[in-house]
Batch of 2 targets.
Target 1
Amino acid sequence: MTSNGIRDQVAIVGMGCTPFGERWDQGVDDLLTDAATEAIASAGVALDDIDAFWLGTMGSGVSGITLSKPLKIDYKPVSRVENFCATGSEAFRNACYAVASGAYDLAMAIGVEKLKDSGYSGLTGIRPVGDGTDAALSSPAAFSFLAPAYAHKFGLDPDEMKSVMSRIAWKNHQNGAVNPRAQYRKEVSLETIGRSPLVAGQLGVFDCSGVSDGSAAAILCRAEDAHRYTEHPLFVKALSFVAGPGGGAMDPDYDYTTFPEVVRSAEDAYRQAGIDDPRRALAMAEVHDCFTPTELVLMEDLGFSERGLGWKDVLAGAFDRDGDLPVNPDGGLKSFGHPIGASGLRMLFECWLQLRHEAPPERQIATVTADRSRGLTHNLGGAPGECVSFVSIVGTEPDA
Amino acid sequence: MGVEAARRALAPLVGPGPQDLFFSTPDPAYLDKSNAAAIHDAVDLDPAAGSYDAIGSVRAAVGAWRAAEALAVGRRTMVVQSDLRTGPAGGPEERDSGDGAVALVFGDDSHEPVAATTIGRGTASTEFLDRWRTPGEDQSRTWEDRFGQEVYGPLVEAAFADALKAAGVLPEAIDHLVLAGLNPRAVAGARAVVGVRPEAVADDRLVSTGNLGAAHAGFVLADVLDRARPEAVIAVVVVADGADVTLLQVSPSIDGMRAARTEAGLRSVAELVESGRDDLPYTRFLTWRGRLQREPARRPDPERPGAPATWRSGPWKSGFVASRCEECGFRHLPPTRVCLKCHAVDRMRPERLADVEGRVATFTIDHLAHSMSPPVVGAVVDFEGGGRYRCEMTDVDPNTVAIGTPVEMVFRRLSTAQGVHNYFWKARPASGPVEPAVTSEGATP
């Protein structure tokens, strides 16, 4: 397989992100307008300067009209894309390729989701007419398969497993508590997390990401043009996206302690970016912590921890905001919230702030240095066994 | 339940399968649509075999039995009798009723010995009002039971006399008397009328299972066949809107047939009853009966399955038929056209896995998903001989599921939406405590 990558060919020159949460006061149009307006202001351009748009939303609208109508975009290409919970990243990836190809000079990637209007507290999803044979398990249930499988394989008893899960939720709540844009801005004690009502398997309410409304956007151009818009662009080092064959759900060799799709997309991204030791090379990572066991497994799949030892790193605080590799310093899906189409771009927004030292002092991570100027985003869609996985790496310095 | 009973009847069968299936129940899943067809497909009968319903009363089940038996000339046929009995909440009918299903296979001894041979029949019919329910009502009404006792008496007497005459036997020659009917007083009266030896009256098991209605006579007959000596004479008397008497003589080879059933892993009726669970919460029973509106899942209502999609996946959905790659041997659930392992296209052969055991690879308890019996226990099941499928579990105490738990597949209702019952396969613990074919409290959806 060929995956050449477009290292340092594209730069992010502006970003915007709305506060996430139960935005009863704002519709899809409002959220898109706020994120787009903030992004273009951040890049110092006008909407008319943007040549093409990629809109990611899973279910809050169909077609490019969902964006062109509220923003009154005059007769320009607007693509609406969808790829499960990695929808926002998919919008970003397509927009990157559009400017890299030279077809357009300035592109916007924007993601939005309005989940709270459905009246349900979880993801509801849209399915085509089927034969009724799919086990109608909820998302937490599908991801909760990871917990007993991981504990069984690596010898953790249920209480140990639960404490690892709780530690991840605790960390992400700690981070969200100091982030004004996050859905949940409250520290939650380990005890409260561990005792929260069960949703599926070992997952309690606090092991689940926030069902949220929100939007985030990025303005992209070719790297050589970046300094026309900002002194501190973020260069795109790697983009990898894979869809799995759905094998885990039918292959007894799959053991529910890993996402093969994540392993593949991470390998691809590290190769594109020239990274051998992600734990030390990266200054931060924003990962798809839809449920706490997901984040645990991702630490191993992304190569941050040895296989089977991720839980020890979690308990040791390695991925805390002041740890040796901060993971989800913005609070993650857990605490920042998970408006599907916006999440991938929200992850990039945190890289935008942290890598460029624009995060407020109380939550600026210390790992970002001249030698360690790259961040990773990881976005997952589907469920263990059949999913899509996206990994990007961005950095402030073009490689020599 | 009908599928479950049919699977047990067919499992030890040697030779060709039934060429006609009659399904009878007073409480069908569908009106204006065949219910027998679902059983036909679920137990993988020959597509050329007929499947017919006899719906509406206990006596219809007798008619279905007789119709199936009459068509078993030089071929095999099957009747499945099934019933969900319900009475007003808290009343004696609810207390004394049960749900159950029984399946009988008819044929001659050209492939293997039969269990018993019909040696005489008698019937008496008349129109009168003993028990009734109009379509759409959820419970039956009855006239005073003494009236029924009065009317049934002579009917039973006449039918029984005709059966004895046809068989050329005397009442004293009867070794086992199977009596069934929904009017307890009429059944007691029939016992007195027929004049068989008191010790010949078979245990009706009403105390343990309740009255199984349309399935009860067949159920007690199956129980008797589990222990009757060779050449014993059995009288089956059904007291329901008339009287129907069937006299059977047990095969000389019955001991060998019982051994074969045991070898096939089939438990006796007594063992099934013994393994019944009595810890079903009453509220759950009422929910299944549609008499209690529970707090719904905070999720969109389940969608009905689409007819074309369901039809296209027929053998998979109805019969749990997977596919195996002929190039590399990898087994796929659900069946697919492209092999996961070797990517060969359209090199699959179907493989029915309904009777293949599996083991739990990982599991969860889903407190959000829709279910008639929340919480949903979801499991990833790895099958003997290969293949994995993620499905719901049933008849299971969530606290006893573990990685490695052995399971077997059963045909169940997943949900009902817009009047469409979504039947598919669930896993249950292989040596599980519940045998729903004869639970005394209610069938598990």
Target 2
Amino acid sequence: MGYNIAVLVKQVPDTHNITGEAMKEDGTVNRQALPAIFNPEDLNALEEALKIKEKFGARITVISMGPPNAAEVLRESLYRGADDLILITDRVFAGADTLATSYVLSLAVKKLGHIDIVLCGRQAIDGDTAQVGPQTAEKLKINQLTFVNKIVSLKKDSITIERSIEGGYETLSSKLPVLITVTGEANTPRPPAVKKLLAYKHAMTPIELESLDESYINANEITDSHAMIKVWDHREIEANPEQCGLSGSPTKVKQIESIVLGVQESRKIENSKAGIEALISELLKEHILG
Amino acid sequence: MAMKTNEVWIYIEQNNGKVADVSLELLGKGSELSRKLKVKTGAVIIGDAVRGLTGKLIKYGADRVYPVEALALKNYTAIPYAHAMVTLVREFEPQIVLYGATTTGRDIAPRIASELRVGLTADCTNLQIGDYTKPSSKEGDILYKDILYQIRPAFGGNIIATIVSPDHRPQMATVREGVMKMNSEDEARKGEIVETKIDLPARLFVTEVARRVQMEKAVDLKSAAVIVSGGMGVGSKENFKLIHDLAHVLSAQVGGSRAAVDAGFIGHDHQVGQTGTTVRPKLYIAVGISGQIQHMAGMKESNRIIAINSDPDAPIFQIAHYGIVGDLNDIVPRFIDVYKSLMK
């Protein structure tokens, strides 16, 4: 009964709230100084999956590729109502560009068996490329609907959506299976449910279970429910290491530069009627205004 | 039957017979790159009635135009259009393919890159040709001549990255609208139409376009003489009325920082910065914007900048010509009053 949905999510450094401390002397960004968060539009994708689950019934599998710490975004998915969680982690995945990432994600989705809808955020805020969605769809040989603002209707074997285009929108229909990338305009993601948070706060990956310290084990009864988050490496998804990570990535970063902003001799304008009047008069005289 | 042309290709975006500006801009940049590489500039245009547009593409810089025409291609949908491009790329082997970073370009280009298994750089703001030395442990350094430098803002627009794709052809990139200069139309330019034949089996047509609503852009930040932008300091969507009011009085366009857009104070079309629209107005008034690097990089070329902020240490003051420290709820209405009385 219901749909089989895979949601692809990513843990990202919070690039939208870069503070002075996160900038290095040379103007580059110190990734470690930024909090790791659930990529915002991936939360919108998860929300769409949860809405489908509530309305029609669905089994939601959330997949994330990343370091072991990325288990956090999977726990957050669980608190919101996801059913199955898979962390794809392996050293050979490191340094992946979007092509290598979509290769790995597509193999993980294939391993799940029959999937009706794959959902992911339009783009991740650490790269802003919006490429992994369409590339994963191509590797799965399924249709793609990108920049989706709204799911208009869902039938047994087809879906109708609205997507933004320059200066407007279009309404598209597609047969299932399909991959959909969701924008931030689609919905307001729900917060974690307190009940679920309490029920699943001990959900872990096998990696995390192994590294538990004694005090935790003494204080908590370790049960099967702990190992809820599955971990797959490249063998598990039958990935060719050559096509993963750095070696599977055609694009290379040649150079990173800081943005140099020429400092301007700034004139302080008094916050008074006279101060502002002088400023506006000057701008009018120079034809900057008016 | 493959034929290695080594050309620089532009994917031409057209909608109901109108060619997107970004495609014409790319013909300008593409022909500059092909001159350096001593190759020709190719333009691929796909649709149901595109023959009439081939002349225009030549006038804007194409040497060879590859039209793909079929009734079924009336509306853009990803799979058939990507199939046409992949087929042509395999047949003619261009060394570079460029796309506009629009909702269409960013939909089709990754699909094509995935099928061809080549690199793709999103949202470039600059392209150059140069050499690249790949460090290699076994064979020593490898030198690649005349590689495409794909330059883009990265990490939320806080840094600039140069990306290369040395081992794969074609090298592909999507490019922002408005950053490359369009050639002026050259009536005397001559070019060649290359006939193409592409199989389009019915199984490719899996998306049905029910409706398409497109208006002329209501927000035109690029050509605005004056822009009034609001940031998080404005506080709320309701209070953003202050920004609209000031813009109205000054006959200015309304902009917003990414934070203000993310918070829902103002729509995406209004976003100024490396991650939104890069602007160069005569006057830019930044209200309640602290000044993230990605924002400042997208407006620092403005002729004059006024910053209004309650925090005297806000980074925005470093690039502003005029700084007013204080409560924007107090300053903006005063600014409006003074301006009105001076204009009487």
